[in-house]
Protein: VOC domain-containing protein
Organism: Pontibacillus marinus BH030004 = DSM 16465
Amino acid sequence: MRVCNINIYVSDLDFAIEWYEEVLGLNVASRRNYPTSVFLQHESDTPLVLHKAEKDTDLDIWKDSATILTFEEKNLREKMKDLKERGVIMMNDEPQWFPDGERIAFKDPFGNIHELAEMRSDNKK
């Protein structure tokens, strides 16, 4: 079995396209299923797909079960500063240590939780 897509459910697909492009810097790779979904272009082989949903989610990170996308960043604090300037709210004031490096969680406007991670150099693939 292999993962063929990672789906991100959003209540407003057009706003989600704008947000993921302008704030996270991801671009639309395909609109073939628009207005139901669009594929986002990014550095991984597994497609990210924005899907239209009826309502936003309300997860409580580290309390509710969830699937969380983690985006690797070379300079975590620089990326955090950039996202904060764009109005993104981080789930912590400072990055949290984990065995492979540091990470910090943030929410998109639809309640989906994602993380940024700066990997320790000895743990890079």
Q: What stands out?
A: The chain has two helices and eight strands. Strands lie at 6-10, 27-30, 37-41, 48-52, 69-72, 96-98, 101-107, 113-119. The CA atoms of residues 95 and 104 lie 5 Å apart.
